[in-house]
Amino acid sequence: MTAVATVHGGEPTQGGLPRGGRSAASLKTVAAILPGECYERPTGRGLAVFARDLTLYAGVVMVLAWSDSLVVLIPAWLVAASTISGLFVLGHDAAHRALFRSARLNYCVGQVAMLPSLHAFSVWAYGHNRIHHAFAACEGMDFVWHPATPDQYARLSPLAKLLHRIEWSALGSGVYYLRAMWWGKIVRGVPPPRLRAAFRRDRLIVAGYFIAASALLVVAGARRGGAVGAAAMWLKVFGVPWLLWNSAIGWAVYIHHIAPDVRWHPRRRWSKFRGQVEGGTVYQVPRWVNVFWHNIFLHVPHHIDPSIPFYHLPRAAAALEARYAATVRERPYRLRDYVRTTRRCKLYDFERGVWLGYDGAEVVA
User: Fold this and answer.
1) Cβ atoms within 10 A of the Cβ of 189, count?
2) Angle CA 136–115–246, to nearest 5
3) What is the per-residue DSSP string for 88-122?
4) Hey, is 298 helix, strand or coil?
5) pTM of the model
6) Are 127 and 189 in contact (CB under 8 A)?
7) Are 232 and 218 in contact (CB under 8 A)?
8) CA-CA distance, 200 to 331, in Å (whole number)?
9) Bridge partners, 250 (sequence order)
10) Who contacts 283 (Cβ-Cβ below 8 Å, separation ≥6)?
11) What is the DSSP string of 42-75?
């Protein structure tokens, strides 16, 4: 697919957007072409995938606890981070009530699925559903990888500028996610009054899981090697996979919403169509990636309707390609594109709708 001007749904467009300010209606038009089969979500299928991912995670945890060889640990750490990702994506679907029809089952499975990533289910669901999805790519609203303007960057302290340069580099996604998302939103996020009890409950569940898991690992490690063994056991089984997972999820969210041809918009010019359809990219990835990531890189159909289960996203993406090939950007995922984007897209001019480098040079898509 290429992002060029087209005519879709009978409406003349400019830059992929319907003229006349009717973008909200256009989003409904786009969603209307998705096949009805995309919304089928049998309970057995969701439970089977959940059981499989839990089994994979438990298996790699046992490997990490058993081995002290780096030859085993290094690939096991990568697999562990990937299994945490798989469980997190299932929790993500549950938060959208896309995994099951039962709200209670979505909550229970989502809660367990997000424990290895130390995410309080209700806290994450609120920010993701009510803010990120509701205002994707909107200035001052969408908090996920929100770009800074040149003026905002210029007002930062030298230390804050250094942190920005680290987080917006190819190796900084984990630093960004850990600081801005997990610590800033999940751990310290302030709930609206009506959700205080839910936030407190789910944070206590995560804290209990963390304490219990850490205690088991420390005791097991101490029996094998005293204090050093206790620290090593916790680090290799829990600490390293979790840190690697932070980098993985930070990278995944970045490539979903940051690219030279992805535009962010001032709130007065933002619309649901612009945010949900043009604020992301559909990436084609190798099949083995989706063993863990569950089609999350088919991100535009997910933003058009988050109630579609992950296993129906390919069908939804195919329907979009058939009808809106010139509006929805789709491309194969290449690591060099990510590296190139992190080198170029540093700041953003919301008035002109262009990405800038730190030197003020405009980034050409």
Assistant:
1) 17
2) 55
3) HHHHHHHHTT-S-S-HHHHHHHHHHHTTTTT--HH
4) strand
5) 0.90
6) yes
7) no
8) 41
9) none
10) 255, 297, 298, 299, 330, 331, 332, 333
11) -HHHHHHHHHHHHHHHHHHHHHHHH---HHHHHH
DSSP 127-191: IIIIIITTTTTBTTT--TTPPBPHHHHHTS-HHHHHHHHHHTSTT-HHHHIIIIIIIIIIISPPP
Between strands 11-14 and 7-8, the pairing is: antiparallel
Strand pairing class (330-332; 282-284) = parallel
| Spatial separation of the C-alpha atoms in residues 248 and 85, rounded to whole Å | 8
Q: List the structure tokens of 112.
A: 């367990």
- Report in angstroms the alpha-carbon separations of 244 from 12, 78, 241: 45, 7, 5
Could you tell me which residues come within 8 angstroms of residue 44 by beta carbon, excluding any fewer than 6 positions away? none
CB 189 within 8 Å of CB 123: yes
In terms of Cα–Cα distance, which of 301, 252, 245 is closest to 276? Answer: 301
Q: How many helices (H) and strands (E) does the chain have?
A: 15, 7
Per-residue buried b or exposed e for 306-337, using 16+ beta carbons within 10 Å of the residue's own CB: bebbbbbbebbbebbeebbebbbbbeeeeeeb
- Please report, in tens digits, the pLDDT of each residue of the chain (365 residues total): 333 222 223 332 323 333 333 344 477 888 889 999 999 999 999 999 999 999 999 999 999 999 999 999 999 999 999 999 999 999 999 999 999 999 999 999 999 999 999 999 999 999 999 999 999 999 999 999 999 999 999 999 999 999 999 999 999 999 999 999 999 999 999 999 999 999 999 999 999 999 999 999 999 999 999 999 999 999 999 999 999 999 999 999 999 999 999 999 999 999 888 888 888 899 999 999 999 999 999 999 999 999 999 999 999 999 988 888 878 889 999 999 999 999 999 999 999 999 999 999 999 87
Burial class (CB in 10 A: 0-12, 13-18, 19+), 258: buried
What is the C-alpha separation between 261 and 283, in angstroms, rounded? 14
